[in-house]
Amino acid sequence: MPGKTNTLGDTVNETLKTLLPDLCIGIGQARGYNKITFERMAKNLRYFVTLDKAGNAPKGTLIIKDAPAAYWNSFPNQENLVCRLG
Prior knowledge:
Helices cover about 25% and strands about 15% of the residues. The chain is α+β, with helices and mostly antiparallel strands. The chain has a two-stranded antiparallel ribbon with strand order 1-4. A two-stranded antiparallel ribbon has the order 2-3. The longest helix is centred in the first third of the chain and has 15 residues, at about 5-20. It is globular, with a radius of gyration of 15 Å. The two termini are about 25 Å apart. The model has no long low-confidence stretch (mean pLDDT about 85).
């Protein structure tokens, strides 16, 4: 996937429409983390501390307009899943 915040959403949506997967898991890298973790709450906010591949560094723009400020993770039995990631 391209590392360009302004086009990534459209690219992901088109890929999902083409592939029609049963499940899609989004992953990313969080500054200061040295392990794999589940994000308990995803903010509906773009706030970059470094530039993306296109030179963008949004500071507080919404990802989805007119949507909730955040989304809770809906994975069942998260603690059991975390053990299996190691």
